[in-house]
Design goal:
Distance between the termini: 36 Å
Number of helices: 9
Bound molecules: succinic acid
Radius of gyration: 20 Å
Number of strands: 13
Shape: globular
Length: 333
């Protein structure tokens, strides 16, 4: 087993700077290079680290091109025998989407038995008391843990699986939750206490959404894609009608996730428009806008549900389904 931990920087608040130390909102994300961030954590000086700047962005601007590059760099480093695991610094805003994406396209064929640990910060690097250095230290500790595997996120001492992690607070340092599933573990005084098994089975769940397509097939489809399918999210809400769906159809949409109310319910008008879209060949998935819980099937369902995926993760699953279908016309996911 290798000893090297590769740290891939992508930007985010963890690499953000403000003109004043007491400014924790008016900062610019993605400014400090990954080597400099690592230098702020003296406790890492005896760990063999390799740093690589993969992107330097605010994660609200995370793009398909950046995902392609990130997945390729992860696959490259995971294949090196001296590499024990990967840590990725990432903005908090879309971390859960990147985590789910990487879990789907890397595991298990490419990830093997190694971990990919995303970490982040809620305060910029210039804050009076930045949270990034501790999160980085915790993430490396998790990546070095014997038996660590799969894609996880570490923030504020809590370890979340890629499937469950969700940002649920706009400013608290502990901004993430694993919802009903509960955290995978916690980092306590420099030790990882696991509460659940490592997410090897997560691939099954990713596959459930992507309908039993091997992750190597997904990876290849992602890497070959020049243009990504158009998949959008619409909400059900009071007075929701079909106008947005009709506008999306006119725009050439390929997939729609509807963030339904409660147990994935959708107004009659919106549902009719979504059924029309489905008939026109657009893939539709029904999730819930509730932060917790999953859509439970009922006898009256006319639109497929997202199998427990949140709207943003269902969108990633749908993107991948569509990509695979386009890349492999003989597969019918
Ligand atoms: C970002 O997502 O890049 C900015 C916000 C954050 O990291 O907390």
């Amino acid at each position: 087993m290798g000893q090297t931990i590769v740290v891939l920087g992508t930007g985010g608040t963890i690499a953000g700077t403000a003109s004043r130390g007491d400014d924790t909102v008016g900062y610019t994300a993605g400014q400090v290079g990954i080597e400099d961030l690592l230098a702020t954590v003296p406790a890492l000086k005896n760990t063999h680290l390799v740093a690589e700047q993969v992107a330097q962005i605010d994660s609200k601007d995370m793009s398909f091109a950046a995902w392609q590059h990130l997945a390729a760099r992860c696959a490259y480093w995971l294949a090196q025998s001296d590499v024990q695991g990967i840590v990725i610094t990432h903005g908090t805003d879309t971390l859960e989407e990147t985590a789910y994406f990487l879990q789907a396209v890397l595991a298990p064929d490419l990830i093997g038995s190694k971990p990919v640990v995303l970490t982040c910060a809620m305060r910029p690097a210039t804050a009076l008391a930045p949270d990034g250095p501790q999160n980085l230290l915790d993430a490396v500790l998790v990546a070095r843990h014997p038996g660590a595997r799969g894609v996880v996120a570490v923030c504020a001492g809590v370890v979340h699986s890629a499937l469950d992690v969700q940002k649920t607070h706009t400013w608290r340092l502990d901004a993430f939750t694993s919802g009903d599933a509960g955290p995978l573990g916690v980092v306590e005084a420099g030790n990882l206490r696991l509460m659940r098994n490592w997410p090897v089975a997560l691939v099954d769940i990713a596959q459930a959404a992507i309908e039993n397509v091997a992750s190597s097939t997904l990876f290849n489809a992602v890497q070959r894609a020049k243009q990504w399918p158009r998949v959008h999210i619409v909400f059900n809400h009071v007075g929701a009608d079909g106008s947005l769906v009709h506008a999306l159809l006119a725009h050439g949409v390929n997939g729609i996730v509807v963030a339904g109310t409660g147990n994935g319910t959708v107004s009659n008008d919106l549902q009719n428009a979504l059924l029309q879209a489905q008939e026109a060949g657009v893939r539709v998935l029904r999730a819930t806008r509730c932060a917790n819980g999953r859509v439970l099937p009922t006898a009256n369902d006319v639109l497929p549900d997202s199998q427990g995926l949140s709207p943003v993760k269902a969108r990633v699953a749908l993107l991948l389904q569509l990509l695979v279908r386009r890349d492999n016309p003989t597969i019918n996911p």
